[in-house]
Amino acid sequence: MPTDPSAPVAVVTGASSGIGAATARALAGAGYRVVLGARRADRLEAVAADCGGTPLTLDVTDQGSVDAFVADVVRHHGRCDLLVNNAGGAKGADAVADADLDDWRWMYETNVLGTVRMTKALLPMLVESGDGQVITIGSTAAREAYQGGAGYNAAKFGVAALSRVLRLELLGQPVRVSEVDPGLVETEFSLVRFDGDRERADAVYAGLTPLTADDVAETVRWIATRPAHVNIDQVLMMPRDQAAAKLVHRREA
Ligand code: NDP
Ligand code: 8X3
């Protein structure tokens, strides 16, 4: 990672695993000084060491944690040019009739309120940078409702609404706003969703070739490195083996 104090600074939330970790590495490779945020300090430190970034513990559902994180970003780097809102995930795949309200609350708190909390806190520095960017990781679940997806759909539709409104509201300001909506990406996502049930998590990707975290990170890197006058508004990306949220092609074992 560049130590040049004039290099732009990128904050990546949920950088302790999966898409966030891959994005931190990709942005460091593109010349950013990267600040990595997540709750698991040990995992975060390992990823940060790998890409020369700054690891700072962060719980996006806790305003005090976000305030302390942003104060540390100011202390370490004094600026922020890019925010990647990636922290998030799903809990459960129950039908609406069986909805677990704690799971719904977790998804709303993490995906929606976490994103607005981080965006609100860093927006002044993003504007001040003269060429700020907010890139938010949504999902195909933000575009297409599916059975068993209601809680996650509701949260990611909410994230998409937030990102699209932000784009409208920042017109005229030097801040670009982008949304990346991936389909199936093999990370710890399904393990978290199914509460550590490895067999159930693996079944999500069985017989198909999913996206990798690096595939999504490369898209974020590409968006971030377009010229300042180019705003990539939305990207929908899926594996070739997936044509819709629940329409996938699986090969026999
Ligand atoms: P992972 O479970 O591998 O990563 C999730 C990351 O979010 C972890 O780094 C986790 O870190 C962090 N996180 C969770 N809760 C919080 C919190 N309260 N505060 C800070 N960080 C938090 O899954 P992915 O990499 O796949 O997920 C990244 C994003 O991509 C999510 O928003 C997800 O919804 C989205 N997505 C995933 C897809 C997939 O198929 N995998 C497809 C489309 C979108 P820690 O636990 O250490 O806090
Ligand atoms: C993750 C993709 O299909 O599990 O955002 O909703 S899916």
From TrEMBL:
Source taxon at top rank: Bacteria
Pfam families the UniProt entry points to: adh_short (PF00106)
Similarity-based family: Belongs to the short-chain dehydrogenases/reductases (SDR) family.
Ranges annotated as spanning the membrane: none
This protein's name: SDR family oxidoreductase
Keywords noted in UniProt: Oxidoreductase
